[in-house]
Task: inverse folding
């Protein structure tokens, strides 16, 4: 299911992370879906185990997966919690913008700059 595009300038660990996030968000990998082991996925993709481990660590930090030691990693029941946290932060930001009287365009420019020019990842 996961594939790495060697021509893509995006690092392989980020390609893995983004693919799993998208699969979880789209319901392709619903909560409880067991992920391959780090070594298994690394072998399947022809990557170093450390590359896959880095992606899994980031996914765990973001709440997309849960790792249960020898039982492996699964898509978390709260896989969309990262999105919920971002939505909450956006609402709080919007409220703060209103409280300080900043106009919408200036606030959006600050967000675009923080995102690296306004593009999404």
Result:
């Amino acid at each position: 299911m996961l594939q790495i595009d060697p021509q893509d300038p995006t690092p392989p660990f980020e390609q893995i992370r983004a693919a799993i996030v998208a699969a979880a968000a789209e319901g392709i990998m619903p909560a409880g879906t067991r992920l391959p082991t780090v070594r298994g996925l690394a072998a399947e993709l022809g990557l170093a185990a450390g590359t896959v481990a880095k992606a899994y660590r980031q996914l765990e930090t973001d709440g997309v997966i849960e790792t249960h030691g020898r039982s492996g990693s699964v898509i978390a029941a709260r896989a969309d919690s990262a999105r919920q946290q971002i939505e909450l932060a956006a609402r709080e930001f919007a409220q703060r913008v209103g409280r300080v009287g900043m106009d919408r365009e200036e606030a959006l420019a600050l967000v675009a700059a923080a995102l690296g020019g306004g593009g999404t990842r």
